[in-house]
Amino acid sequence: MRNETPESMRAWVLGGPGEIRMIEKPVPQPGPAEVLVRIGAIAVCHTDIEVLHNGHPAMIEGESPFNKDFTMGHEYMGYVAKTGPSVDEWQEGDRITAEVHAGCGRCPKCREGMYTSCHNYSYRSKGHRANGFTTDGGFAEYAVNNINTLVRAPDHLSDEVCTLTVTAGTAMYGLDAMGGLVAGQSLVVTGAGPIGLMFIAIAKTLGAAPVIMSEPREDRREMAGKLGADILIDPMKEDPVAMVRELTGGKGADFTVEASGVPSVVNQTIYMTNRGGRLCLAAFATDLVPTDLAYVVSNNIYMFGIRGEGESAVKRAAALLGQKRFDPAPIHTHTFPFEETPMAISYAEDQTDGAIKVVVKMD
Ligand SMILES: [Zn+2]
Ligand SMILES: [Zn+2]
Questions:
Q1: C-alpha to C-alpha distance for 290 and 341, rounded to whole angstroms
Q2: Which one is the CATH code of 8-164+328-361: 3.40.50.1100, 3.60.110.10, 3.40.50.300, 3.90.180.10?
Q3: What is the distance in A from the centroid of ligand 1 to the CA of 1?
Q4: Which part of the chain is CATH 3.40.50.720?
Q5: Phi first, then psi: what are they for 233, rounded to 5°?
Q6: Residue 173 is inside which H or E element, if any?
Q7: Contact 123, 33 (CB under 8 A)
């Protein structure tokens, strides 16, 4: 079966800050080690909203992504529509989801496998690709992907839910970066956004106990409960640090994950961490963060900043999803058609109607 791809496609592109418009542009052609993907569905990520307003962390050859007919969007799934020269790893029609980063493959970080920390970030001319950040992403009918970013989509997941695989990969990467979770170890997450919720789901799946969520919004706390949190803390009503200590025999949690980005919460998360425990910073803090580093040092706490979904974590997250070890479906709250992408973005941005993951479904 060979579907001819059209010559042009509809794509949302960035104008100036805060501007997004639909244009007709040529369907890109896959090069060696690349495939063309027909987009099936794409989720709006908080980072897309960041890019829309500030440009960063999207960058094209070291420069701002504005006014370059650049298409953002990185949490998508779809179908292989065309394979590039020499590609025999994937066939037309394969249902896939894609991780974001294909590093340059030539810098020391890429050679160490840390391609989300590539030193040639944004330089397509040096081979670097990051979907929707440095190369055109998925708010379009088609997107080119390096084959090393493709992951087979779990069959039982709908197109909409399948877009969450990348988010699950980020949580998996965080747990990997911290040195891996051992069943029975305790874990706390502060902030029940999509990434915080995925940390809950994956940690629970891997045997963490207890799994604790601290989140001020009631609907989000409930969601954390659905995804496997054993204990839900409302930090507006009770002192989350005291609660975590009480729940862990006065010692603090073995693993803590800061997924809120709220500066004051970052320091609380430090105080929730056990001696010799590990703290993962998974959110972009909205400001400089005053932290009690003496406490970190004197308690031998290890801190890990993670970027993206490195070390093929998306593949491992997809394996857990494929085995139905957890159900991410509740995180997907809204769906919009492609024409209404700006509406989808504003729903995600304003968290309208309890929106968590807003997905654009192609027709
Ligand atoms: Zn994202
Ligand atoms: Zn590199």
A1: 37
A2: 3.90.180.10
A3: 33
A4: 168-305
A5: -115, 135
A6: helix 165-177
A7: no
Tens of pLDDT along 274-316?
A: 999 999 999 988 889 999 999 999 999 999 999 888 888 999 9
* Residue 33 identity: A
Q: Please list the residue range(s) of the chain that carry CATH number 3.90.180.10.
A: 8-164+328-361
Ligand lying nearest the CA atom of residue 128: 2
DSSP letters, 200-258, are: HHHHHHTT-SSEEEE-S-HHHHHHHHHTT-SEEE-TTTS-HHHHHHHHTTTS-EEEEEE
pTM: 0.94
Q: How far is the CA of 30 from the centre of ligand 1 (A)?
A: 23
Domain 168-305 sits in which CATH superfamily?
NAD(P)-binding Rossmann-like Domain (3.40.50.720)
